[in-house]
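>> received
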Amino acid sequence: MTELTLHNREATMAMGQKLAPYLQAGDVIVLNGDLGAGKTTFTKGLAAGLGIKNVIKSPTFTIIREYQSGRLPLYHMDIYRLENGGAEDLGLEEYFDGDGISVVEWAEFIEDELPADFLAINFKRTDDEKTRVLSFEPHGARFETIVNQMVTAHD
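>> returned
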């Protein structure tokens, strides 16, 4: 597992932006962390890196927000409200196998639905309110390569 320390919101957004060029249709990114840990901030950077100009908002109440205006569509999902089930009714595999990037928050509630290959990013707060530690957990060789390239580029 690879860890990076980011010292402010801008660095979190920049890390999302840095990931975007590596991604292709059908990629699934899982974001784990407490409320306010930086998951939506990261997604805003990812969207900017894909060329999406829309305002990115947390999909907490809508479950899935779709953004079509970038290099690839972005499907931002917040599965928290499905803690007690209902994911099978969303057709998640159509998103995961589709033409865009799926970013999933609170994916522990749909673990059975996730594809074999995906990138999990864990967001951890620190004692410094602005600093976050991101740990990257690649599932599959392609995501291992992406993480290695991103970390090398970050140094």
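>> The chain has a mean pLDDT of 88.
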